[in-house]
Design brief:
The chain has helices spanning about 40-45, 70-75, 95-100, 105-120, 120-125, 135-150, 165-185, 195-200, 220, 225-230; strands at about 1-10, 15-25, 30-35, 55-60, 65, 80, 155-160, 185-190, 205-210, 210-215. It is α/β, with parallel strands linked by helices and about 230 residues long. The chain has a domain at about 1-25 and about 35-75 and about 185-234: P-loop containing nucleotide triphosphate hydrolases (Rossmann fold). It is globular, with a radius of gyration of 17 Å.
Length: about 230
C-alpha cells in the first residue's frame, strides 16, 4: 500500500532522515517509535507533503506522493493528525469536523459524522462548543475525529497520547484498535509511549537520530533486549 523508499529529508543542509525505508500494508497498524529528535514527526510530515523529500520516494499504490502537494496527497486518501492536535480553537466542534471532510460529498460527510459521534459520544455532547474550550482529552478526540472525517485510506497519528492521563491513554489506544478492526482502516502510528504502541502494532520500526535501526512485529520488538533497555527501562 504505502512504501517509503530510502528517503532523505533535510532542514536547511542538515539531514533529519537518512536512507529511511518502510512499508505499510493495507489493514495494518504500523508503529514508529523512538526518542525525541529521532525524526518521527519529520517522517509523517514528509509523507503528507509538509516537508520536501531530498532523496528517495514515497509511493501509495503506485502514486508518487513525494511529487505532489499536501492537498493532493490528502485527496489520495492520506490523513495526518499532527502532534499538538492542530484544531481550530475558535471554531465549534462541528465546524472542525466539517473542515476535515472538505473533499467529501454531503452524503459522505454526514455518514462519517455519525461514525465519529458513535466513536466519541462526548464530541456529540460538545458539538456546538468552541473547540478551544474542550479539555485536553476531548481535543485529542476532536483531532482524531477530524482526521476520520476525510474517509482516509491511511490515518497517520503523531503522538496521539501526548500529555494525557493514563486512563485516557488507554482509551486512545483502544480506539486505534477499534477503528482498525471495525473500519479496516490502515494506521501509521508515531508514539513515544513505546509499550502501548508496540502492544497494538502489527509491525513496528525504531528510529534513532534519523535512521532506522530495528524493525519487526510489535510483540517481537517488545521482547527485544535493545528496545527493552533503551525505551522500557528493563
Amino acid at each position: 500500500m504505502l512504501q517509503v523508499e530510502a528517503i532523505e529529508v533535510r532542514y536547511d543542509d542538515v539531514p533529519a532522515l537518512r536512507d529511511v525505508s518502510l512499508e505499510v500494508k493495507e489493514g495494518e497498524i504500523v508503529g514508529v517509535i523512538g526518542s525525541n529528535g529521532a525524526g518521527k514527526t519529520t517522517l509523517l510530515r514528509a509523507i503528507s507533503g509538509m516537508r520536501p523529500v531530498a532523496e528517495g520516494a514515497i509511493i501509495l499504490d503506485g502514486v508518487p506522493l513525494h511529487t505532489l502537494k499536501s492537498h493532493e496527497i490528502a485527496a489520495h486518501g492520506v490523513a495526518h493528525v499532527p502532534e499538538g492536535r492542530g484544531i481550530f480553537a475558535y471554531q465549534t466542534v462541528l465546524r472542525n469536523l466539517y473542515l476535515g471532510a472538505f473533499l467529501r460529498t454531503k452524503e459522505e460527510r454526514d455518514e462519517m459524522l455519525d461514525r465519529v459521534f458513535e466513536l466519541f459520544p462526548r464530541l456529540y455532547e460538545r458539538r456546538n462548543q468552541q473547540a478551544g474550550t474542550l479539555s485536553g482529552g476531548e481535543q485529542h478526540m476532536l483531532a482524531i475525529g477530524r482526521g476520520l472525517m476525510a474517509r482516509p485510506r491511511i490515518l497517520m497519528l503523531d503522538e496521539p497520547s501526548l500529555g494525557l492521563m493514563p486512563k485516557l491513554v488507554d482509551m486512545i489506544f483502544e480506539l486505534v484498535q477499534r477503528i482498525n478492526r471495525e473500519d479496516g482502516l490502515t494506521i501509521l502510528l508515531v508514539e513515544q509511549n513505546v509499550l502501548e504502541s508496540l502492544e497494538v502494532a502489527d509491525r513496528a520500526y525504531v528510529l534513532e537520530t534519523g535512521s532506522l535501526v530495528l524493525e519487526g512485529g510489535g510483540r517481537e520488538l517488545l521482547d527485544d533486549p535493545q528496545v527493552q533497555k533503551a525505551y522500557l527501562g528493563m
